[in-house]
Amino acid sequence: MSDMERWAAVDRYVDDLVVRPDRTMEQAASATAEAGMPPIAVSAAQGKLLHLIARMSGARRILEIGTLGGYSTIWLARALPPEGRLISLEIDPRHAEVARANLAEAGLADRAEVQVGPALATLEKLAQDRQGDFDLTFIDADKVNIPEYFGWAVTLSRPGAAIVVDNVVRNGELIDTGSHDPSVQGVRRFHEQLAGMADRVSATTIQTVGSKGYDGFTLAVVS
């Protein structure tokens, strides 16, 4: 058994016994695949982790950067109280359409909104409109712009808010100083950014393995 096969088998074991099969999430994953989107959404175990972080932090306002088909959006929105609100940013109108349908099917359309357009422009508008004070932000969009997304996330967060940034280890290429991959350069710039923001955020990066391969995420708390 290869490492990847073992990691995926452990994920299946955990999904079956702890995360547990979920018809709504399975339907969202199927609808996303049928729409021809790439299989890059978080795994079930990772989605449950986001859900638990949202619950543990008592999040009432959540910002998500990168919607895809809304799989992670559903996990996050499920943690909100009835009066809670989630705003998810997606650049592709077709992806947003599928995500909205998945959110409606999950019964979450009343508390989760998908806004379409380049995320950097939308984030600036959110700041201009004073729609910040988010309790939790999940960043899972293109890696080239992660530092810029993170900077806006800090600006739009209340003190004590959590920020989760996905896919920041890149199969270990994070430490490759000579990489010409724009995504690797993006996550390296992001970590350098974190090193210079110790007065504004406290953060750590955790390596992960599983059905999505070898990667990792950063968890930060805004001061």
Question: What distinguishing features does this structure have?
Answer:
223 residues, alpha/beta, Rossmann fold, seven-stranded mixed sheet, 43% helix, 23% strand, globular
Description:
It is a single chain. With 223 residues, this protein is an alpha/beta fold. The protein has one domain: Vaccinia Virus protein VP39 (Rossmann fold, 3-Layer(aba) Sandwich). It has helices at 3-19, 23-34, 44-56, 71-77, 93-105, 119-128, 146-155, 182-195, and strands spanning 61-65, 85-90, 112-116, 134-139, 157-166, 201-210, 213-222. The protein has a seven-stranded mixed sheet with strand order 3-2-1-4-5-7-6, sandwiched between helices. β4, α7 and β5 form a beta-alpha-beta unit. α2 (23-34) runs antiparallel to α5 (93-105), α3 packs parallel to α4 (71-77) and α6 (119-128) packs parallel to α7 (146-155). The model has no long low-confidence stretch (mean pLDDT 97).
Main sheet: which strands, in order across? 3-2-1-4-5-7-6
CATH topology category name: Rossmann fold
CATH class: Alpha Beta
| Class based on secondary structure composition and strand pairing | alpha/beta
- Percentage beta strand: 15-25%
**Measured distance between first and last alpha carbons:** 45 Å
Shape: globular
The total tally of domains equals 1
Number of helices: 8
Q: How would you characterize the largest beta sheet?
A: 7 strands, mixed
**Low-confidence region ranges:** none
SSE string: HHHEHEHEHEHEHEE
CATH architecture descriptor name: 3-Layer(aba) Sandwich
